[in-house]
Amino acid sequence: MAFDTLIRNGTVIDGTGRLRYVADVGISRGKIEAIGRLEDAEAVRTVDATGLVVAPGFIDMHSHSDVSLLDDPGGESKAHQGVTTEVMGNCGYSPFPVGPRGDAGTKDPASKFEWEWKDLDGWANLLESNGISLNLAPQVGQANIQYAAGAIEDRPATDDEMREMKRLAIEAVEQGAFSISTGLSLAPSGYMSTDELVALCKPLSAYEGVFYVTHARVGPGRHLSAIQEAVEIGQRAGIPVQFSHLAIGSRDVFGRGPEMLEVFEKAIAEGLDITYDSYPYTAGQAGINQTIPVWAQAGSFDEYMARLRDPETRARIRDEVTTGIGGLPPLWEAWVIADWPDESGRQLIGKSVQEIAADREVEPAEAALQLEEESHGKVSAVVHNRIESDVRYFLSHPLGMYGSDGNAISPVGVHADEKLHPRFYGTYPRILGRYVREQSLMSLETAINKMTGKPADRLRLKDRGRVEKGLVADLAIFIPDTVIDRATFESPHQLAEGMVHVLVNGESVISDGVHTQVRAGRVLRRST
């Protein structure tokens, strides 16, 4: 036999959860053609994988690389983790559909690209013509559907708006979207009721494999109700459910993960297909607008800013921000500014809202409103609001899989000056190095199954997610004894170590630890 690439003597962990074994892997025309002892085979390129793990390329179940690969097409932050597929369009926001009102405010202010597309097809065509190193699996965001239909006020949708939203959701699914996502603790996503979400999702149940993914109505006192609402939507709409970035960020319910997973287990026993994703850090990253009551953000951005300028309304907003969602005031010292849309506020990056408030001699709630105004609603912060024992619990539970909640970017790209969450660079090697190798929280086979086979099953990607003959050669080849994250909160733009080779669609994107800048990725579409 002759192959394009022959990987010799690697320790194969195939993504199914089965035990590892040593074998050669032959690749031709982008697919795995043979697995076994291939001593007599010839190949254009041979990789010596002695002592290395050969795994399926990791599928990041929760990313926000919707447009970041336009400006940083190599996606180095993820490629060096072994990620080969980014699932985007999460938390209710996607780059499509684009209606008469424009892009729903989701355009990355750092991006150099104009939004000239209107739908999934137009977005995908631009990405693929520009060239990308990783695959993208698109989801359609409910907030963008609302925006395109004009349903962005804090009120029930009209019949006409609901008809248009259903049409747009179906259009995206028919163009290949894998799911519909919500961001129910954000505006305008959170304006829709449970009944409205059921009505929007129900027509999608006619399409095989389409699921509902949710950034739920999280917050103090909502650790169970957030999951229960997702379950209700899935059951009533007849659609599988993916619960996004499961975590406990409210100090009043630390340690109550088992209660939360009981809701999942009960729903599964009743016949619902429901899973979740999580990431391995005791901090998240969120827009400052998530501390602002959603009623204040209704309508257009100009209307939001007008409320902040009105003295009486501003005082009401400030009082609610001080009290906090659910009556739990934010720990402002834990909110550390991560980015700024232009040069005007770059000096604030790395400072907490508490520090900024002290510098300005105002209360933290007032500082938060000022930051919203000055950044035009585009400022986010790293939020240190979790405990390690909860992180470990959600990472290790059999129901879960992993998602970084971060973008594929470059350490020298358009976001290089920002102090972003280290999850952009470290999620998968951190699990493999810290939680598998150092802490033995789970076996390597289990961890890789959660990174590959499980998300492939959720997406119904029949040709990826496993090392198996006939499947696409998306592969991550790494050193199990040294793979580790290097990104920190203080210095986040640090590439992970230990990923020796990464293949995307059979082409080498990482070779001997170096990015080749090969643009082998493509936009994947839902199987029909």
Number of beta strands: 21
Describe the largest sheet: 9 strands, mixed
Helix content: 25-40%
> What share of the residues does DSSP label as strand, in percent?
15-25%
What gyration radius follows from the Cα positions, in whole Å?
22 Å
Class of the largest domain in CATH? Alpha Beta
Helix/strand/pairing category: alpha/beta
Q: What oligomeric state do the depicted chains represent?
A: single chain
Q: What is the average per-residue confidence, as pLDDT, rounded to a whole number?
A: 96
Could you name the CATH topology of the largest domain?
Answer: TIM Barrel
Task: Give the domain tally.
Answer: 2
Query: Span between N and C termini?
Result: 34 Å
Characterise the protein shown here.
- The longest helix has 16 residues, at 159-174.
- The chain is globular.
- Strands 1, 2, 3, 4, 5, 18, 19, 20 and 21 form a 9-stranded mixed β-sheet that branches. Strands 9-10-11-12-13-17 form a 6-stranded parallel β-sheet, with helices on both faces.
- It has 528 residues and is α/β, with parallel strands linked by helices.
- 30% of the residues lie in helices and 19% in strands.
- The protein contains 16 helices and 21 strands.
- It has 2 domains: 57-282 and 386-460, Alpha-Beta Barrel (TIM Barrel); 288-383, no CATH class.
- It has helices at 68-71, 76-79, 120-130, 142-149, 159-174, 194-201, 225-237, 257-269, 301-309, 311-323, 353-360, 364-374, 388-396, 423-438, 444-451, 453-459, and strands at 2-12, 21-28, 31-36, 42-48, 53-56, 58-60, 83-87, 135-137, 140-141, 179-183, 211-215, 241-243, 274-278, 284-287, 335-337, 380-383, 400-402, 475-478, 499-504, 507-511, 514-515.
- Helix 6 (194-201) runs parallel beside helix 7 (225-237) and helix 10 (311-323) packs across helix 12 (364-374).
- The mean pLDDT is 96.
